[in-house]
């Protein structure tokens, strides 16, 4: 809520924030992902969408966290996303960030119809550091992945 207040200072856009469910500690990677995606979605709506109203809904469920950010702005064609060059990670960066955290992202928009971003993250998402052929790597598990395991090798 504080971030939404800060982002909307001196703006004419109304931001509604609703939190439902049981507030509990989240895995650091999940918390960071939800925070950054929400921040980016609200920033984009304020900066580019000419939105009059933005709704942010955070639903903390037993096994997952669902963030929904929706605006009544000008919308865009999500099939023509391009990487951002201004320090923000944009739509394609959002997808990559959510994927790294084992979640799912649904981005819905069309010119003239606003934008809705839904992120679902597993509350029990876990990563462990291990050695893969002598290189440090992460093993991350999430029920959202079909193979339940994702490997990232860090050089």
Could you explain the architecture of this structure?
The structure is a single chain. With 155 residues, this protein is α+β, with helices and mostly antiparallel strands. Helix content is 25%, strand content 36%. The strands form 2 sheets. A 5-stranded mixed sheet has the order 1-2-3-5-4, with helices on one face. A 3-stranded antiparallel sheet has the order 6-7-8, with no helix packed on it. Helix 1 (2-8) runs parallel beside helix 2 and helix 2 packs antiparallel against helix 3. Residues 144-155 have low confidence and may be disordered.
Layout of secondary structure:
Blueprint: H1 2-8, E1 14-21, H2 28-48, E2 53-60, E3 64-71, H3 90-100, E4 104-109, E5 115-122, E6 126-132, E7 135-141, E8 150-153
Parallel strand pairs: 1-2
Antiparallel strand pairs: 2-3, 3-5, 4-5, 6-7, 7-8
Helix pairs in contact: 1-2, 2-3
């Amino acid at each position: 809520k504080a971030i939404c207040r800060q982002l909307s200072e001196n703006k004419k856009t109304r931001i509604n924030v609703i939190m439902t469910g049981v507030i509990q500690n989240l895995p650091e990677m999940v918390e960071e992902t939800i925070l950054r995606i929400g921040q980016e979605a609200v920033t984009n709506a304020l900066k580019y969408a000419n939105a009059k109203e933005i709704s942010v809904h955070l639903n903390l469920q037993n096994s997952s966290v669902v963030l929904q950010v929706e605006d009544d702005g000008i919308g865009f064609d999500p099939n023509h996303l391009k990487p951002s060059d201004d320090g923000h990670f944009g739509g394609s960066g959002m997808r990559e960030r959510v994927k790294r955290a084992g979640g799912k992202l649904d981005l819905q928009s069309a010119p003239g119809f606003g934008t809705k971003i839904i992120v679902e993250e597993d509350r029990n998402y876990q990563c462990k550091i291990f050695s893969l052929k002598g290189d440090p790597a992460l093993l991350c598990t999430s029920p959202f992945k079909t193979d339940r395991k994702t490997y990232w090798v860090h050089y």
